[in-house]
Please model this.
Amino acid sequence: MRIPILRLGDILLTSIQVDLTDAEVMQFQTDVLHAIADIEARGLVIEITALEVVDSFMARTINDTANMAQMIGAEVVVCGMRPAVALTLIEMGRGLIGVETTFNLNEGLARLNKKIAQRGDSSLTDDEDAV
Amino acid sequence: MTVPPEAAEFTIPIRDSTDVLRARGSARELAARLKLGSADQTRLATAVSELTRNILQYAGEGTCTIINASDDHQRCIRVIVEDHGPGIPDIPLALRDGYSTGGGLGAGLPGVQRLMDEFQITSQPGHTCLTMAMNRPRTPFT
Model:
């Protein structure tokens, strides 16, 4: 199954709600990066409230995806990590490195919009208005 | 996920990453049935995920056996992960933080060891067996 990537203005919104096989995780990574590049998205939200298990592979992939998205120009926020998941990752000696996290989607969007505003570049909607 | 309700023990063949999901889902289901807390359910499922993924990465295929070893005094879930791959040449090294041969970040085995209460490895070329267990005392409600 493919993870839907929703567009919300110049932000892309994804929510991982089921356990993914390795192939699905890698597909997700590719899909997200292409979607960002296609619309030159200013921000990406990865919502993981429903994920009950994040093993080191999944943690690394989320981390890599976020860093890749940042590398091509989008701000990234991961939101909704469950306490038990955070606890397990840290006990294992893992974590998300260089990725902003928020409690929930609402805060995630607020954080992203703030970061995008700080960058000072024109948003896609502004561009469209100008045309 | 399908866990035989009263089975004391069941074995899941591990051949691809859907089997990893099945194994960790089954472990989690058993933990929930034994009324382990959500943190423990996640610890156990994550540990099973790490070890069964190691099978795919290093041995290609193997098995994961999940055992309800609870008794009157404690709830115990034992997990045995076995494969017939090349084996772990240096176990103390594999248990050291930051060490990995498989392109991971090297928190696999030491990470799992920290999540579980018991953790043992026997390994030789052609047979590797990792046994781990989570033990929790019984409470009046469990």
Chain B has one domain: 9-137.
